[in-house]
Design goal:
By secondary structure, this protein is mainly α. It has 20 helices and two strands.
Length: 465
């Protein structure tokens, strides 16, 4: 009988398909990134053609002033959620799927959260790829599905190797994208009156403020909920706030409102060609790279969710790199077959289904604080608690109730309604002692968590920048 391969060989084999990036453990403090590296990661999330398209879509149906108000409401909602959840991720060094085991949902509930988030992020992966494929196809020719496949393969290849490579990629892409966009937009608007565009009436059917704010906040709400995937690499809470706020200002007030002006100018939401047509082959390359920089986080967050889902449901630890390959193929196929045709419907559902997760996390971690004590006890040692609650049925009931409020109540902003409902219900019921976990699951029963083992830290080489 052949001898079993040594442990080092197994680790080497695992590393050959990319980095696992602490998918089921805390990120050690000595593996965190510096302020400027993380800032570029955040700003990179602001640079996408889809944000211009969203701004133009809103601009077609709103005055500039109302669009400004809609982006303000959306940005405030997002920043509050991002900071409250992102700060928890920074303190614990945990991604959202793992965080929810001790913050509101329990072990089995975290699997459900992971599944919903993973599906949503793969959908966004398809949306971004479709926008790129259609835009490049219209500019340089060739079928859009071909460009979708090219972009999908490139993004998947990047994400396989994890956070360190994604951070290095951001340092290249972010400055190039915004320099190119600034040149294209200025070149387009220089012969038009800026004042006339601001005061011009909306060229299309009126869009209600609540609908616009929901599209803005709901469209990035999944990103807000999974912000710990990024902030777990932060060193300070002040960095989380400054970086996320900078990203909101850039994406909503600069990119989004520029899209509004372009929508007023061409009287359509088809504005991507403006950026691409004035930039030539270089512009196509930069937009491809910026699409990759947005979509790498969609794919990255989805992979972390699937890893947690498989360990909880099947008791198997799957490597994040291998999961990335499978999800990348799935997302690329979704974009190639035209998921973008359901863009509006996708945003609407996302805008009310995902926010309650954030409301529950914030309520438990910062208000109720009854399930997070094991995290407090193990934070300094940078290990995970030996056990977690199995189920928290009341959290699932609150999630469903909050979704129904956001979906079926006509007043206010649906994304905010569902978020606030979940936060208030969990806070009140939790403080009254009605939110109770049932059962206890130990990490040893879940397929071998390499939680506290010393070599767990060295198996995923993510260096601080």
């Amino acid at each position: 009988m052949a001898a079993a391969p040594p442990a080092d060989a197994a680790v080497h084999e695992t590393k050959s398909i990319g980095s696992d990036d602490y998918s089921l453990s805390r990120v050690p403090r000595d593996k965190r990134f510096g302020f400027w590296s993380m800032l570029l990661q955040w700003l990179a999330q602001s640079g996408s053609i889809s944000q211009f398209t969203l701004g133009a879509t809103i601009g077609v149906g709103m005055t500039f002033g109302n669009a400004f108000l809609a982006f303000t409401l959306g940005a405030v909602i997002l920043e509050v959620v991002i900071f409250a959840i992102g700060l928890a991720g920074m303190r614990e060094g945990l991604a959202t799927p793992m965080l929810t085991r001790w913050v509101g949902f329990g072990r089995n509930g975290s699997a459900l959260v992971s599944f919903v988030i993973a599906v949503s992020l793969v959908g966004w992966f398809g949306v971004q790829n479709t926008i790129f494929g259609n835009s490049v196809s219209a500019l340089v020719g060739g079928p859009s599905w071909m460009w979708c496949v090219i972009a999908g393969i490139a993004i998947t290849a990047l994400v396989i190797f994890g956070f360190k490579y994604m951070a290095n990629f951001a340092k290249i892409v972010t400055p190039l994208f915004f320099a190119m966009v600034a040149w294209s937009v200025i070149n387009t608007l220089k012969d038009h009156s800026f004042s006339d565009l601001i005061h011009s009436p909306p060229p299309g059917d009126t869009i209600p403020l609540a609908v616009a704010a929901t599209a803005i906040a709901g469209g990035y709400m999944t990103g807000a909920i999974v912000s710990p995937e990024m902030t777990r690499y932060n060193r300070k809470g002040s960095h989380v706030f400054l970086q996320s706020a900078s990203s909101m200002i850039l994406s909503e007030y600069i990119v989004g409102l520029t899209g509004v002006l372009l929508g007023h100018l061409v009287k359509s939401n088809e504005v991507s060609h403006i950026v691409l047509s004035t930039s030539g082959a270089f512009g196509v390359i930069v937009v491809l790279m910026s699409t990759a920089k947005i979509n790498d986080w969609n794919l990255y967050g989805s992979s972390l969710g699937v890893v947690n889902f498989f360990q909880v449901v099947f008791g198997k630890r799957v490597h994040r790199g291998a999961v990335t390959i499978v999800l990348g193929i799935a997302g690329t196929l979704l974009s190639a077959v035209g998921i973008m045709t359901h863009f509006t419907e996708f945003l609407t559902i996302l805008g009310v289904a995902i926010p309650p997760i954030g409301g529950i996390i914030v309520a438990e971690y910062w208000v109720v604080k009854k399930m997070r004590k094991p995290l407090d006890d193990t934070r300094e040692s940078e290990t995970l608690p030996k056990s977690s609650p199995t189920w928290v049925p009341m959290s699932i009931a609150i999630w469903i109730a909050a979704f129904c409020v956001g979906k079926f109540y006509d007043g206010g902003i649906p994304a905010l309604n569902s978020l606030a409902t979940a936060f208030v219900l969990y806070s009140v019921l939790g403080l009254l002692g009605w939110v109770k976990p049932y059962g206890t699951s130990t990490l040893d029963d879940e397929g071998g968590e390499d939680n506290a083992a010393p070599d767990a830290r060295t198996s995923t080489p993510v260096g601080a920048a």
